[in-house]
Amino acid sequence: MNKFALFLKTSLLDPFVRSFQRFTDSIILSILLVIFSIVNLETRGGLAFFGEMLPFLWLTLPLLIFKSLLIERIGLNNLWKYLLAGGALIVTISFFLITRFWLTTTDVFLSIRLSAAWVVAILLALIVNYFPKRENFAFYVVFLLTKFFVTIFYAVVLYSGIFAILASIEALFGINLSEFIYIDLFFAVIGLVAVPVFVGFLPGHSEDKQENDYHVIWKTVFAFIVVPLIMIFSAILIVYIITSFANPNYYGFVYLISALVTAFLTLAMIFLLEKFETHYPHVRFFNKYWPFVLLAILAGFVYELVIALLSEGFTLTTSIYLYLGIAVLALTIVRLIKKPLRLGHGQIIGVISLLAVITAVFMPFVNIL
Fold first, then answer.
1. What are the mean pLDDT values of the chain's consecutive 10-residue runs (369 residues total)?
2. ω into residue 132 within 30 of 0, thus cis?
3. Running DSSP on this structure, what letter comes out for residue 224?
4. DSSP 8-state code for residue 338
5. How many whole angstroms separate alpha carbon 111 and alpha carbon 109?
């Protein structure tokens, strides 16, 4: 077998086959959802009530992946596979009914809740194999991040190629294909190729990820680009809020957004580079002292958030600031606790993020203006 054929086998064919073997119900559901989505689109919503459920039924995919990984870890029998698969479907349908008939709201709120539910399902699938305190969680996350972007690259190349072929047929032969053909193609590439290939890359519970699974590109980008930028931007933020009383160009919402982005990136870098503190002195300095700098930034965040709440009340924007602010403040405080905990640092990030997102999904926004 030549190198190109070997590359195709290991990068596309093998993951595709593994996904059907390990995540059979997930792949079957993905295929069915592609078919239903295309039919609903071509019939302009002809599936009626079922068509309204389709965006929520896609949410079943990460739940089924979580179910399969959980069964592999615990070693449950086949009966539990079917029971938990049914449970995942019931959860999805229940969430649809709750958001449609109980948490009735605007399309914007519905989109936020659906997006947050996706984050919940993905976080569950992400941490199931490394909960509560399994080592090398950061290596596992970066490995999946690498495979995610590889899958996106494959999907984009495939979509672009087929898109060009279909566009050429329409232009050269005067054939008018369906007006939704390119959206149909998008669903097909995602559901029939991208999902099976990416899922096929997911390691089993017995597979331990090591430092060599942490691609050098990520290590370089995180340690030598992202971390220095965070340090510089943190200093700018602190100066920005200190001088806010005398700065006519100061805007509170700019600080709130910037502080949240800085906080999430700081916590993420501390987690992802924790194993490389001995390799890079500046990373060791960053991981040790920057949580204190982050506390100063978050103090300014709380100050600006209180001002926003007093002047605007609980709007959609201030509510999101509040939820996310509580999450990053909790993560920062936990990071500063020196006592050994039952959870690893990365698992703590996952659990607190999970709780914050669940709150955003189900807690009604108070006094939305």
1. 66 80 90 90 79 87 91 82 89 85 71 82 86 82 91 92 90 80 91 90 84 86 94 91 79 89 92 86 91 92 90 82 86 75 70 75 56
2. yes
3. I
4. -
5. 5
Q: What is the pLDDT of residue 17?
A: 82
- Name the nearest CA neighbour of 304 among 344, 257, 263, 338: 257
Greatest Cα-to-Cα distance within the chain, rounded to the nearest angstrom: 71
Contacts of 263 (CB under 8 A, 6+ apart): 294, 297, 298, 301, 328, 331, 332
| CB-side neighbour CA atoms (13 Å) of 226 | 20
295: exposed, middle or buried (Cβ count in 10 Å: 0-12, 13-18, 19+): middle
| Range 327-330, long-range pairs (CB < 8 A, 24+ positions) | 327/352, 327/353, 327/355, 327/356, 328/260, 328/263, 328/264, 328/267, 328/298, 329/298, 329/302
pLDDT at 221 (0 to 100): 93
Place of tokens 């593994």: 18
* Amino acid 341: pLDDT: 64
Backbone angles phi, psi at 278, to 5 degrees: -75, -20
